[in-house]
Write a structure and sequence with these properties.
By secondary structure, this protein is of the alpha+beta class. The protein has helices at about 15-25, 30-40, 85-100, 115-120, and strands at about 5-10, 45-50, 55-65, 70-75, 105-110, 125-135, 140-150. The relative contact order is 0.16. Bound molecules: coenzyme A (COA). Coenzyme A binds near residues 74, 81, 86 and 119.
């Protein structure tokens, strides 16, 4: 990642920016209340990418359950896509999960979301099932993806 970007955990002070990012990235965004509640939970892993000027350009939430975890949401601002931030963010989330001893990571993705599917496939996720009509606006199936973290080796520390 270029030096002008910083990867760090999210805080309550980021909520307004997270809400704006969420609405810019998704057709059926989480509400501000859902974002705030998820951020407060002890089981949540949160990461944001901040520009040097202080603007948040990407974020991800994960949830840890025993030795498994789920990526709940992950998004890069439309103006910053295809610059490697999604890959860096995903690597940061997986590193944070690996350090907690997580063995398996799960996530759902819209079947039509080619960008995210390519990102996750590149990161070692494999298809594990389909949830019919899982999404709203528009209604769409979810592909369930799984990653075995026992083979995860990050070249970088989880945070910097
Ligand atoms: C999916 C998303 C996070 C990718 O972020 P990004 O910063 O653009 O991704 P990167 O630049 O790090 O790309 C990493 C790899 O992902 C794949 N990829 C990313 N965008 C892609 C696209 N539009 N089409 C095909 N492959 C794509 C490529 O393999 C890419 O590697 P490459 O650039 O060397 O070809 C971003 O498109 C996004 O925020 N989408 C909306 C929110 C979303 O769908 N989140 C996932 C919910 S499960």
């Amino acid at each position: 990642m270029a030096d002008s970007f910083q990867l760090r955990p999210a805080s309550a002070a980021d909520l307004q920016a997270l809400d704006a990012l969420e609405r810019a990235a998704f057709s059926d965004p989480w509400t501000a209340a859902q974002l705030a509640q998820t951020l407060r939970q002890d089981s949540t892993i949160s990461l944001v990418i901040e520009e040097a000027a202080g603007r948040l350009v990407a974020y991800a939430f994960g949830r840890v359950l025993m030795d498994e975890a789920e990526i709940l949401t992950l998004a890069v601002h439309p103006s910053q896509r295809r610059g490697g931030l999604g890959r860096r963010l995903l690597e940061g989330v997986l590193a944070a999960m690996a350090i907690r001893g997580i063995r398996f990571v799960w996530l759902e993705v819209r079947v039509s979301n080619e960008a995210a599917r390519a990102l996750y496939t590149e990161a070692g996720f494999i298809a594990s099932g389909v949830r019919r009509s899982y999404y709203r606006r528009p209604v769409e199936d979810a592909l369930v993806l799984k990653r075995d973290l026992s083979t995860f080796a990050s070249a970088r520390p989880p945070l910097r």
